[in-house]
Amino acid sequence: MRDLLYSLYERRISRRLSAVEERPAHVALMLDGNRRWARDVGFADVNDGHRVGAAKIADLLGWCEEAGVEVVTLFLLSTDNLNRPADELEPLLQIIADVVDELSGPTARWRLRVVGALDLLPEDLAHRLSAAAERTVGRPGLELNVAVGYGGRQEIADAVRKLLLQHAESGTSIEELAEVLDVDHIAAHLYTSGQPDPDLVIRTSGEQRLSGFLLWQSAHSEFWFCEAYWPEFRKVDFLRALRDYAARHRRFGS
């Protein structure tokens, strides 16, 4: 009965959204709560929470396609996570590598980009992620960013470093660069360069903080926080986020 009620509710929201023009072009998601969900449902291995969460990603991308979303960014692993004990980190890295391979497989419909500091990752993982992204070059469909080894401060530092090196190679002095430097120069060297900034950022698990996610790009984003842990996140929750987004008046900092 509960599933039937949710199905009816989902259809009702979908019908209402079909008449709404304001849709996010770029949705970023923090897939949080996997380990807590695994403990709550009684899994002996909390990594099973990550495995269930990873299996849900393809469903999410299908929902995004139906909603006309053009870019999706998924926060899978932060730079802080790299400091976890090996018995926690190694299974998680394997799960991430496996799901990225699946998302870049021959039947996948998405163009994949890895956003993060690949040099901080184990060499074999960095290679697998890069190879997965290479397999999707030229594919139609939405753009999928997988944030692995990602930190917002690290991204900005990397962008400034790339900018300085680029101008040093062309013979520009620090003084000359300082005269012309603006936000667009830095934005052009971010991991997400060439893409629109996220219109909507969703975080599951009830936590209401960014944890360093897309610090630069989210300056004018709308945020939606969901109590559900990521493995139990439903399509109706995603539609609620879109409905809430459509009802907001975006001010873009004004």
Written overview of the protein:
By secondary structure, the protein is of the alpha/beta class. The chain has one domain (25-247): 3-Layer(aba) Sandwich (Undecaprenyl pyrophosphate synthetase), CATH 3.40.1180. It has helices at 2-18, 34-41, 47-66, 86-103, 123-135, 152-169, 174-180, 183-187, 235-247, and strands at 26-30, 71-78, 111-115, 143-150, 200-203, 222-225. It has a six-stranded parallel beta sheet, sandwiched between helices. Strand 3 (111-115), helix 5 and strand 4 (143-150) form a beta-alpha-beta unit. Helix 1 (2-18) runs parallel beside helix 9 and helix 3 (47-66) packs parallel to helix 4 (86-103). It is globular and about 65 Å long. The model has no long low-confidence stretch (mean pLDDT 92).
Which helices and strands occur, and which strands form pairs?
Layout: H1 2-18, E1 26-30, H2 34-41, H3 47-66, E2 71-78, H4 86-103, E3 111-115, H5 123-135, E4 143-150, H6 152-169, H7 174-180, H8 183-187, E5 200-203, E6 222-225, H9 235-247
Parallel strand pairs: 1-2, 1-5, 2-4, 3-4, 5-6
Helix pairs in contact: 1-9, 2-3, 3-4, 4-5
